[in-house]
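Dear colleague,

Thank you for sharing your sequence with our group. We've completed the structure prediction you requested, and as agreed, I am returning the results in plain text so they can be pasted directly into your records. Please verify that the sequence below matches your submission; if there's any discrepancy, let me know and we will rerun it promptly.
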Amino acid sequence: MEENSEWKIKDNRFVAFLDILGFKEFIMRNSHDEVYEQLTKISNLTEFLANIPRYNIVDNKIDQIVYYKDFIEIATFSDSFIIFSNNDSIRNYKIFTSIVNNFYANALKFKIPLKGGFAHGEISIDKSKNIYFGQPIIDAFLLQEDVNYIGIVAHHSIDVFLKNNLAEISKSINFEAHFFEEKTPLKSGYVNHLNLNWFELAGRYKQIEISNMKEEDIIKHIEEIITDFKYTTTGSPRKYIDNTIDFFRESLKNKKIILLDSITSKK
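Please find the predicted structure tokens below.
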């Protein structure tokens, strides 16, 4: 059955607003060419993710090949990146969260720290006129402004969507491996929120590189990813690093973060 990838100008969608941490300081401390090189890495990443093929399987045969760019739109504005889905079907929810997670984990591999928020609701997108507007974009942006660690936090509109659709979503994805609810460091204080589990994907990348890796190796690798940012930040931006380490360790202690079973299982 053919997958409908038609883009309507007005539709219910998911949106993630991501912002580079310490970008102003990065511009001040690096040459124009170095800043351009970092932004080029992100641009290449968006192009790569958009062109990943998605195979529609019917009767164990490939019925159709489409691309993620048919289902998502990534807009770039200076140090901010906005990822949209083309509607709010369960299929598009899975594609959207997969792309956001991959975008985030790959940016960290390039040593580009991001924080963000994601939301759901009615959004208008007219690509031909470069028009993007809707309350969920504002919701995701404002939540991103409040996030006080290196991570992505869900707006309550996502909670409502999941409440109405979690049974169906859980049938096809390992929900706990993608998201976890924990007291989250916000500028307004520690508040229970749903968080994207980028830690799991970062651990998976490392597993590919090293065979027979143990859980403690994965944890060490993730903490190295986070603490390495101290070499590019000074003063108040470092609070994000401290908060992320504390948040990661607390979430592990509370068994909120699930690393891949193939990683955490005892040999």
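Summary note from our side: The radius of gyration is 18 Å.

Kind regards,
the structure core
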